[in-house]
Amino acid sequence: MAFLYQAILLVADYPILTGIFTIFCGLFIPVAYFLTSGFAPSPFKKATSKRKGPARLTDRTSKDKILKQGFATKKIPQNLDAIVIGSGIGGLSSAAILSKAGKRVLVLEQHDQAGGSCHTFHEKGYEFDTGIHYIGGMQDGSDMRLLLDYLTDNNLEWHKLSDTFDYVHVDSSKTQSTKIPIVGGGFEGYKETLLQHFPQEEKAICGFVDLLEEARAYSWPCGILKMLPTWVSWLLIKSGLINRYILLTQKNTLDVIQGLTDNKTLQTVFAYVFADYGTPPKYSSFFTHATVLNHFVKNGSYYPVGGTSEIAHCLIPTIEESGGGVLVRAPVSKILLDLEGKVIGVCVTKNKEEVNIFAPTVISDAGLWNTFESLLPREVMLKSKYYKPLRDLAQKPGATAMLLFVGLKGTTEELNLSPANHFIYSSDDVDRSFTDYLAMTAQEACTAETPIVFASFPSAKDPTWQQRYPGQSVCTVITLVNWEWFSRWEDQRIMHRGEDYEGLKKKFADQAWEQCLRKFPQLADKVEYFDVGTPLSNKFYLGTPRGEIYGLEHDFSRFSPEMTSHVRAQTDIPGLILTGQDVFSCGFAGALFAGILASSAALNRLVFIDLILKKQLFGQKRDKKEIELEE
Ligand SMILES: Cc1cc2nc3c(=O)[nH]c(=O)nc-3n(C[C@H](O)[C@H](O)[C@H](O)COP(=O)(O)OP(=O)(O)OC[C@H]3O[C@@H](n4cnc5c(N)ncnc54)[C@H](O)[C@@H]3O)c2cc1C
Ligand SMILES: *[C@@H]1O[C@H](CO)[C@@H](O)[C@H](O)[C@H]1NC(C)=O
Ligand SMILES: *[C@@H]1O[C@H](CO)[C@@H](O)[C@H](O)[C@H]1NC(C)=O
């Protein structure tokens, strides 16, 4: 063994040698693919079943029958192949892929409806989204779209939003404010619009776009590193073959941006999208930043027809079709292990009653911290070689937020609302203003200018909205805040946290709404419903330890090539697999990709290759024909 290790180290010192070695190892993927494909059937062998037709106007009662199936012992299917903890897109996609491969999977969700961040709620006749405002990469023919079409039997439809997917508002001073559209559908359009607004900044803009393109061209290792065996990934990192990618992960976002231009407004426009992953530019890797922006710039943004709850609504029937199910109000309190340390199932605790459910595989969508620090026995967590290098990262609180849910009288047209999101920055030095803000006390912060106010109008995005909610609109406002400001009420029951909490919450909310109204004064007298969620609400509904909205912190260390390779779906605890945003990155697409990784680990085959093969062999054509025939 020692000799082998020495030999590998020796080879690793010579990039060319390792290059050859890595190419040799590249053969590993096809070989591994063909060797393993016999064990479990490809999830993409089954034909999709009949599309139910354009049913996006499903009434709420029948939709709730699918989304809100309450946990009861008699509803637990027998002979389960796998249990999934959590029904976010990471959990549902893993379960649906396994179901397509003929496995029987039970998804357990602690909240009272399925979907995680994709869930919507209804209050006083209004419908609100909670955690999806736009998704990139959903154009016809993309891998992601193909996967979702397949997993939902073509029942989930996507609506392309306007080419301008975001607006950035920068208040450089009390009197000067600029509004810049961010345009998707290719780098050219993105560049052109910025040039129109910053004609003197051609060099900076072209430089930035070049870097975005580079990040796109060299992004492939970030997925591959999680799919190859760890030692092959290690060789790949050392080989010199992916140095362009490694360099991008080592660049700091703030340094890159400040190095390109002195114009503070333009710096803010380059930086704005950090709010989509929550880590200030000073602490993030440029690769992460560019990947998030590229996600939307490439082909614009999309929204599920019928609202974001359609995602779970269309995935659950697939899981049920192979004998599995999705049960809500089912908080998992423990992962059960046998004497040898192998996973054998989970325990659901309800009203002090414990129900043990058994399956040879458990896939957790509950996040890294929850899974290791709260669901596994402590001694198992401490012994895990997988978790050890991640413990520091898991202890850091990730970004958290306050959410305002505002119900408005009037249609999209009457209120002049855009499908594009608005990022409103109260200064042109976002990194400083945001870091300073988070360092304030709660009393200071609640009446201070909020550095970032995100405002979005889901009612302007869904083509079925006006039919479903005539004469109404909704606005969601998000501000990034500090968990510590609210943590003292952590142990109090929801709705019973007392006057101090309600008072603080109101001050924060009034401040954010006032800043929002400066950009949308027409909404001032149209408010019919107004509610506020704090990090404690996020904790309650999403089950995150400190109200995180994007899971783990997206800082520099998390996206180093070594860490990228280390954080994978397969853990060192036999039978325990991870899925969801902590495995890859936050965002719908990130969590969905984690679903591919998790199902690969569970099926012991490369599901991503299955997907690519399906695309190459059958492509969209066959699916299109199927759809046409059925319509
Ligand atoms: C406010 C907000 C805005 C966002 N905007 C966008 C956007 O515009 N575009 C985009 O792409 N992404 C956006 N995101 C990010 C995206 O929604 C998430 O990254 C993604 O949906 C996470 O999916 P997941 O499966 O990892 O986790 P989640 O959706 O969080 O699902 C985890 C589930 O596990 C459940 N759970 C936890 N513990 C237990 C337990 N012990 N037992 C049972 N169940 C448990 C939780 O209740 C939850 O339902 C946003 C997120 C938020 C919060
Ligand atoms: C998506 O973007 C790529 C590159 O920008 C382009 O070649 C392709 O045609 C786009 N596809 C769609 C459907 O817009
Ligand atoms: C930044 O660019 C904008 C648009 O060209 C311009 O109006 C502004 O004055 C510039 N700011 C500085 C500090 O140069």
From TrEMBL:
Domain Amine oxidase stretches: 89-350
Annotated InterPro entries: Amino_oxidase (IPR002937), FAD/NAD-bd_sf (IPR036188), Retinol_saturase (IPR052206)
Membrane-spanning intervals of the chain: 7-35
Listed SUPFAM superfamilies: FAD/NAD(P)-binding domain
UniProt keyword annotations, A-Z: FAD, Flavoprotein, Membrane, NAD, NADP, Signal, Transmembrane, Transmembrane helix
GO molecular function: oxidoreductase activity
Keyword Transmembrane attached: yes
Record's keyword annotation contains ATP-binding: no
One Pfam family from the record: Amino_oxidase
Membership in a protein family: Belongs to the carotenoid/retinoid oxidoreductase family. CrtISO subfamily.
Protein name: All-trans-retinol 13,14-reductase
UniProt source species: Lingula anatina
Lineage of source species: Eukaryota, Metazoa, Spiralia, Lophotrochozoa, Brachiopoda
